[in-house]
Amino acid sequence: MSKKAKIPLLLVIIFYALYFTLTKVDWMSGDAQWFSKVDSSPISFVIKRYETWSSRFWIEGATLIASKHLILFYIFTVILTLLFFYSLSELFSFNEYDSNLVLVVFFMALFPVVSLQSAGPIATIVNYIWPSALFLYWLMTDRHRKMKNIGSLQNSLSILFLGLAVFNEGLAIILCLYLILCLIVEKKNFFNTYRMICLVISLLSFLNVLLCPGNQNRGMLEIARWFPTFNHLSFLDKILIQFNNIASNLIVSHNLLEVLVILLFIKAIQRRQRLSIILSGAVIMLTSASHQLISDRLSVIVKESPGKEFNQQIIGTLLKPTLIFATLILLIVLIIILLYGKSKTSLMIIASLVITFSSAMAISLSPTLLASADRPLLFLYFALVFNCIFLVNDLSEFNERKASIIMDKSK
Questions:
Q1: Which residue from 84, 86, 309, 322 has the fewest beta carbons nearer than 10 Å?
Q2: Residue 351, SS3?
Q3: Are residues 216 and 245 located together in one domain of the fold?
Q4: What is the per-residue pLDDT for 400?
Q5: Is the pLDDT of residue 17 over 90?
Q6: Letter string b/e over residues 160-192, b meaning 16 or more CB atoms within 10 A of that residue's CB
Q7: Are 266 and 188 in contact (CB under 8 A)?
Q8: Which of 29-33, 126-130, 394-398 has the highest mean pLDDT?
Q9: Percent of the chain, pLDDT > 90?
Q10: Which residues cross the membrane (predicted)?
Q11: Are 222 and 255 in a shared domain?
Q12: CA 41, CA 56: separation in Å to the nearest integer?
C-alpha cells in the first residue's frame, strides 16, 4: 500500500467543513442550547444524569463539554471522523487510492447528513458519530486479528474504545449480535482472551442499560410527553410502528434502499443472471410504487401519537405496508444470495444489514420511537451506505478484471 492511498480520506473533512459552513448550521440548536446553560462540573453532571436521565455516562459529559467549548468539539470531531473512515477503509481492505476515493465520494453522496440535525448537530454527533468511530476501530481490529498479529497497544486501545462505544445502547445491541454471529461461524476458534473480554463488555453494557435508574425515570417522563398511551400498546403494535418507521425513512425520506437495489440490479446485469435482474427490477418498481402508501399510513400514527385519545385501531392500517416492506427485504436477501452464493460476501452484506436493522427495531420498546426521528437508524444508514460502497467497488473491480482478461487474450 502506497503512502498516498489514504489521502482521499482527508476530503471528508474538507467536504463537511464546507457543507456546514455554507449551510450556516446552528451548532447551538437542539439539545446543545440546554447543555450550554448547565451550571455544573462535568463529573457531578454525569453522575446526576445517570441517576435521573440516561445510561450514556461519558457521552452525556462529552455533550456538555462540547456544547460549552466549540473548539474542543471541532477538534475531537475531526479526529474521530478521520478514525471512522480510516477504520472503515482498513475493514474493507481498501489499500488503493481509487478505492478510498470511491469510499469517500459515495459516502458523501449517500449518507443523509440532514439526519444529524434531529437533536441538534452537537448532541447527535457526540451521541452517535463519536461512539461509531470508536466501535469501527474495534471492529477493524477484531477482523484483522484473524489475518495478522496485532500489537498489544492496538489490542488495548480497541478494547478501551469498545468499552466507551457501547455506552450507546444501539451499539451495545450490535456488539451482542455480532459476537453471537462470530460464535456460530467460528465455533471453537471464537474462544480466546480477547473475545472473552469483549463478551464481558457486552454483558456489562446490557446491565448498564437495564439497571441504570435514570433510564427508568426517563421512560416514565417521556411516555407522558411523547406517547401517553404507549403502555397500552401491545408488543406487536410497537413492532409494527417501528417497522413502518424504518420503511418510511429508508424508502421515502432517503431512498437508501432503492440505491442498494439499483446497485444489485447493475451487478446482476454485469453477471448476466436473469433471475436476479428480474427480481431486482421488481423490487425497484415495488419500492417506487409503495412510497405514498408507506408515508400516508405512518403519518397518521405520528400525528395522533402525542394525544391522550390515541385510537389503537389505526395501527391496523400498517399491516399492508408492513407486508410490502417485509417482501422487499426478503427479495433483497434472495438477490444477494443469488449473486454471491453461500460466500463470506453474502454473509457480510446480509449480517451487517440484519444486525443494524435489529438495533433500529429495538427502539420500538421506547416511547420515543417516533419522537427520536431517525437518530436510532443512523447505524442502519451506515450499514446500507457501506454496502453500497462495497458494491460500487466490487463492480469496478469486476470490470478491471474483465478488461485485464481481454487484454491478455489479445496478446
A1: 309
A2: helix
A3: no
A4: 52
A5: yes
A6: ebbbbbbbbbbbbbbbbbbbeebeeeeeeeeee
A7: no
A8: 126-130
A9: 70
A10: 7-25, 71-88, 100-116, 122-139, 159-181, 193-211, 275-294, 314-340, 347-365, 377-395
A11: no
A12: 17
Q: Are 228 and 222 in contact (CB under 8 A)?
A: no
CA 215 to CA 209: how far, in whole Å?
A: 7
- Exposure of 39 by Cβ count < 10 A (0-12 exposed, 13-18 middle, 19+ buried)? exposed
Task: Determine the pLDDT at residue 2.
Answer: 64
Sign of torsion over alpha carbons 127, 129, 134, 135:
positive
CB 118 within 8 A of CB 373: yes
Contacts with 367 (C-beta within 8 Å, 6 or more apart), sequence order: 219, 222, 223, 226, 227, 230
Q: Are residues 300 and 210 in the same domain?
A: no
Determine the angle formed by the axes of helices 344-361 and 169-186, rounding to 10 degrees: 150
Q: How far is C-alpha 106 from the geometric centre of its chain's CA atoms?
A: 16
Structural domain count of the chain: 2
Residue 104: count of CB within 10 angstroms of its CB? 23
Least Cα distance to 92 among 153, 139, 151 occurs for: 139
Look up residue 257 and give its three cell numbers. Answer: 434502499
Provide φ and ψ at 86, rounded to 5°: -65, -45
Pairwise CA distance, residues 61 & 50, whole Å: 10
Q: Which domain holds residue 312?
A: 228-411
| Residue 30, C-alpha cell as written in the block | 437542539
Residue type, 393: N
Q: Which residue has the cell 460549552?
A: 68
How does 270-279 read in b/e, with b if 16+ C-beta sit within 10 Å? eeebeebbeb
- Mark whether 396 and 335 lie in a shared domain: yes
Burial (CB count within 10 angstroms: exposed 0-12, middle 13-18, buried 19+), residue 264? buried
188 and 321 assigned to the same domain: no
The reported pLDDT for the residue numbered 403 is 43
**Structure-block grid coordinates of residue 234:** 401491545
Q: Which of 187, 82, 192, 199 is nearest to 129 (CA)?
A: 82
Is 350 within 8 Å of 333 (Cβ atoms)?
Answer: yes
Asked if residue 87 lies in contact with residue 165, where contact means CB atoms within 8 angstroms, the answer is no
- How far apart CA 90 and CA 350 sit, in angstroms, is 20
* Residues in contact with 260: Cβ distance below 8 Å, sequence separation at least 6, in sequence order: 332, 384, 387, 388, 391
End residue of a domain, out of 170, 203, 226: 226
What torsion, rounded to 10 degrees, do the Cα atoms 146, 148, 154, 160 define?
Answer: 0
